[in-house]
Inverse folding.
């Protein structure tokens, strides 16, 4: 018996997106609570933010719909003329599709369902395959997987940041976990962990091949003053019962953290919000360096940099070491605060990070700065430039 596909009302989607934006629960907790996939939540959030401006310009939105209706009326006449020809072509194509083996049919539906205007039910009917085979049954992150993800983060931070998934697999086996190499690779990708040394790139923040990749501009470059080079990155932070993502921006010269944001999703909005805040508070850098993750190569993020005439630099393929300044900061944060406090909820985690950021910037001596404090170095450097 096939499973009935669930549908969700706009009000329901809005409710969940607002709960997600509040940042008081992890995406895993919300997905589990309402029995939906984390992917659906991320998609709804993206669509919500893309259309948020319409709430303040209803007239423009209404006019847009009127123009669209007029265009559709014009197209309707043209489409009617093509209907006869289309029907013949459709019958021919359907006949060809029905002759394919079941595995090929299933792959075709999976690869097209996100882009086609034809519903999954209709696709399956055309292909003559069982619709129930196409549904993914969402499951919340298990306690075991969460324990393993936390241990991977600890190993990467405390033992060796050069471990790829094979070495990480061996370490986990030694720690007593029963897990395969492919599962280790999957979990490392989920939390954004990659080995820091040149090698074939297997583990990274997810790369989008349609986005432009910019060259690395910091090789042999001498960094003499604040706002010459900033770096941005995202890291995984554990909290009891789930996890969050932290995006931050660091000034290379002073090692000061200029902006940060905690989120339950690792999406483009996370990095663009942090970038906008840093620019609003501290001006702009000459160069902004990141990894090649899709969040940083996205049009939304690069558009902000171009608008402010900031040079875009990206790590070499498989070289997190090119962004070592912020990688080391994340290690300090986890080693000196996150692992020690083991925060019980997101509110405590956010308060703890805020407290640590203040301590790190204004009170902590930094060995790379001849034991000066990051924000002191940043502010004095800004005054010299002025």
């Amino acid at each position: 018996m096939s499973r009935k596909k669930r549908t969700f009302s706009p009000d329901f989607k809005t409710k969940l997106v607002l709960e997600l934006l509040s940042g008081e629960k992890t995406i895993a907790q919300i997905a589990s609570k309402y029995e939906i996939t984390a992917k659906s939540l991320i998609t709804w959030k993206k669509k919500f933010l893309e259309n948020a401006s319409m709430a303040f310009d209803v007239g423009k939105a209404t006019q847009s719909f009127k123009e669209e209706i007029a265009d559709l009326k014009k197209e309707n006449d043209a489409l009617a003329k093509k209907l006869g020809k289309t029907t013949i072509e459709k019958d021919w194509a359907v006949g060809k599709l029905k002759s394919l083996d079941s595995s090929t049919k299933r792959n075709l539906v999976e690869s097209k369902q996100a882009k086609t205007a034809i519903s999954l039910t209709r696709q399956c009917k055309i292909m003559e395959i069982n619709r129930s085979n196409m549904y993914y049954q969402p499951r919340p992150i298990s306690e075991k997987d969460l324990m393993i993800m936390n241990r991977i983060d600890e190993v990467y931070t405390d033992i060796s940041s050069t471990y790829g998934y094979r070495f990480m697999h061996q370490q986990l086996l030694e720690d007593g976990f029963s897990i395969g190499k492919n599962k280790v690779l999957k979990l490392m990708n989920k939390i954004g962990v990659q080995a820091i040394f040149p090698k074939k790139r297997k583990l990274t923040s997810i790369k989008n091949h349609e986005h432009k990749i910019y060259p690395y501009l910091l090789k042999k470059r001498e960094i003499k003053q604040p706002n010459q080079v900033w770096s941005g990155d995202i890291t995984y932070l554990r909290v009891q019962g789930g996890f969050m993502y932290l995006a931050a921006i660091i000034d290379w010269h002073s090692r000061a953290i200029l902006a940060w944001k905690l989120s339950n999703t690792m999406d483009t909005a996370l990095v663009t919000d942090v970038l906008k805040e840093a620019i609003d508070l501290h001006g702009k850098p000459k160069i902004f360096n990141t990894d090649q993750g899709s969040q940083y190569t996205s049009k939304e993020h690069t558009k902000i940099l171009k608008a402010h005439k900031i040079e875009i630099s990206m790590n070499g393929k498989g070289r997190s070491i090119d962004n070592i300044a912020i990688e080391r900061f994340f290690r300090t944060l986890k080693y000196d605060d996150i692992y020690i406090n083991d925060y019980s909820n997101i509110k405590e985690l956010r308060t703890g990070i805020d407290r640590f950021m203040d301590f790190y910037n204004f009170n902590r001596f930094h060995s790379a700065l001849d034991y000066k404090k990051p924000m002191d170095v940043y502010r004095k450097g800004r005054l010299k430039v002025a």
